[in-house]
Specification:
78% helix, single chain, mainly alpha, 205 residues
Length: 205
Amino acid sequence: MEGRAMDAQFQKDICALYDTKDYGDTEPDCQTGYAKLLPLLTEEQKVSLEQMELAYIQRRNYAAQYGFKCGIFGAFRQFFGYSKANDGGFDDLVFQDLLMQPGMQRHHENYANIEQCNEIDRAIMDALSEENKEHMVSIACAWQQRVYSAAFDGFYCGYRAAYDLMEDLMPLVKVQNMDKILTMEYHMGYIKPYSEVERLHDMAA
């Protein structure tokens, strides 16, 4: 089941979700960073940058998979009344455990990738002028946002999947828990209060 639920298509879907969101200047700054930085790097540094990118991709994949599993757990925990977290448990199950110290150290292979990214980032930054360091910062910021987004969206997908599974056995489960589901979706930013929907509609008119 795990292999079917979190195959290559799952990772593509997570990346596609990221592309639908607005992260301000994060991605444009990243592309500018690559354009400005690559001509300045030695061949050895370019290889190191590629290694950093591969480590970030592994981190993103892991974040999506772990987030999905935590989303399933969070939904069931919420359903059985063991948690009243407004975000369905994202903060304690994923953010604190996977993305923050000291929790992230529990994930040994993923933590090794984090250390590799940091080591390569420091090595390249140390060789750059103050003027050009901002380009490396922009690249790292974009990759970190991609990892966070993968964990975030993976968690929500798992949360939704858990309620879909429960619905097969209990057809009214979503109706009976709609207050919890809507509160979670609001706190995670997937839905807006109707006043905000009206305001955005008026702006677009």
